[in-house]
């Protein structure tokens, strides 16, 4: 039996199985809210799954290998855990409707990478620059189709905007403290989910290819992207603590309550990834791929 202090983040749920992650999110949600209120999240997840598999009318299947279904469910698990941790720690829980809206916004936060059916040139990676607004645009149309209010669209859109690395977060006019908190949580979960992935370093090769097709400047090779990931990590720490006001700390309360682990498994996992990345970068340029051994 694995002792609680030895448990790794990847052992809590099969992160390679989006449906398993989704059920974990449901189990977290119903610790605080009625199970009947989760149905809207389940509907959004089904539509998301259809969209990414190419079964949603008018759209092609997801063809970006970094920003794929697993990236989205990584972020979804992370925000569910942050919400849970906040609700455990705070004297007043996040209102159910706002929490539910945040989960749905997370499910749809990278739909901007999906091409429409008549868009046959290249992959969705060409929309890397501008994908956040495209995701918001998709959400607005989706919400209109299923009967959500314009106000719901605006709230969810502002949350998604927090995932944009170039977004001016301080200028976003949130409608309430709860919406701001959830926006910060979504922005944090997007970062935590991807960097704490067990195959994060292997998937960076896919990210480089997306950047290349999307004309993202500053990366001349896969190896250079790995090198600059160390800089990205330092920027991420500042972003989590200063811009998102340290809401990632609520993960600790989740892991303590649910698993008896008094530490943030996201931070533990990310530190391990960065430590291994430094070993890779100390190797010869031509041999770095030999050190990326996990199957993706």
Can you give the helix content as a percent range? Answer: 55-70%
Based on Cα principal axes, name the global outline: globular
How many separate structural domains? Answer: 1
Give the percentage of residues in beta strands.
under 5%
Q: What fold name goes in the CATH topology slot? A: Catalytic domain of cyclic nucleotide phosphodiesterase 4b2b
Derived from helix and strand composition plus strand pairing, the structural class reads mainly alpha
Q: H/E series, N to C?
A: HHHHHHHHHHH
Q: What key attributes describe this structure?
A:
296 residues, mainly alpha, Catalytic domain of cyclic nucleotide phosphodiesterase 4b2b, globular
Topology summary:
Layout: H1 18-29, H2 39-53, H3 69-89, H4 96-107, H5 131-146, H6 150-161, H7 177-195, H8 200-213, H9 222-243, H10 250-259, H11 265-281
Helix pairs in contact: 1-3, 2-4, 3-4, 3-7, 3-10, 4-6, 4-7, 5-6, 6-7, 7-9, 9-11
């Amino acid at each position: 039996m694995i002792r609680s202090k030895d448990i790794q983040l990847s052992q809590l749920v099969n992160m390679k199985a989006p449906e398993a992650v989704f059920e974990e999110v449901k189990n977290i949600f119903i610790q605080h809210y009625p199970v009947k209120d989760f149905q809207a999240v389940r509907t959004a997840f089904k539509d998301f799954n259809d969209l990414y598999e190419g079964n949603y009318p008018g759209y092609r299947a997801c063809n970006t290998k970094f920003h794929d279904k697993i990236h989205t469910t990584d972020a979804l698990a992370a925000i569910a855990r942050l919400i849970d941790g906040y609700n455990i720690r705070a004297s007043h829980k996040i209102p159910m409707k706002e929490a539910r809206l945040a989960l749905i916004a997370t499910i749809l936060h990278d739909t901007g990478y999906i091409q429409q059916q008549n868009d046959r040139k290249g992959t969705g990676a060409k929309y890397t620059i501008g994908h956040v607004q495209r995701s918001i645009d998709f959400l607005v149309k989706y919400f209109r189709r299923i009967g959500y209010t314009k106000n719901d669209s605006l709230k969810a859109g502002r949350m998604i905007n927090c995932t944009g690395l170039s977004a001016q977060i301080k200028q976003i006019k949130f409608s309430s403290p709860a919406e701001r908190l959830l926006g910060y949580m979504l922005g944090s979960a997007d970062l935590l989910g991807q960097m704490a992935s067990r195959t994060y370093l292997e998937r960076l090769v896919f990210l480089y290819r997306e950047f290349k097709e999307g004309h993202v400047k500053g990366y001349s090779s896969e190896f250079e992207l790995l090198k600059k990931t160390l800089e990205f990590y330092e920027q991420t720490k500042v972003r989590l603590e200063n811009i998102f006001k340290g809401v990632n700390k609520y993960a600790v309360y989740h892991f303590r309550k649910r698993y008896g682990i008094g530490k943030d498994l996201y931070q533990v996992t990310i530190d391990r990834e960065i430590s291994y990345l430094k070993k890779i970068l100390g190797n010869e340029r031509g041999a770095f791929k030999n050190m990326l051994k996990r199957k993706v």
